Amino acid sequence: xxxxxxTNANFTNEVLESDRTVLVDFWxxxxxxxxxVSPIVDEIAMESAEVKVCKINIDEQPQLAxxxxxxxxxxxxxxxxxxxxxxxxxxxxxxxxxxxxxx
Length: 103
Fold this sequence. Notes:
Blueprint: E1 3-5, H1 11-16, E2 21-27, H2 32-47, E3 51-57, H3 62-67, E4 75-80, E5 83-89, H4 94-102
Parallel strand pairs: 1-3, 2-3
Antiparallel strand pairs: 2-4, 4-5
């Protein structure tokens, strides 16, 4: 699977109504730690068919960042059944992110 770019228009359909676990990466192009996490998130998207991986550019979608209380980036949220089940703020390594998804 690839990365799904999320906007206000497709958030409900792609994230909240997904029948799969969804990893959402809140990021911005100017964020150094986001650039460190991005290749890891991309790897997970390519390796895991059972997880939908989405990215939200907070500069373009500030309402979604505000809705989920994103104060620092990168912020990673894991959704199941439309609910946030796990959250991490800051750069994280691949094993940590994979554990987030599984928990």
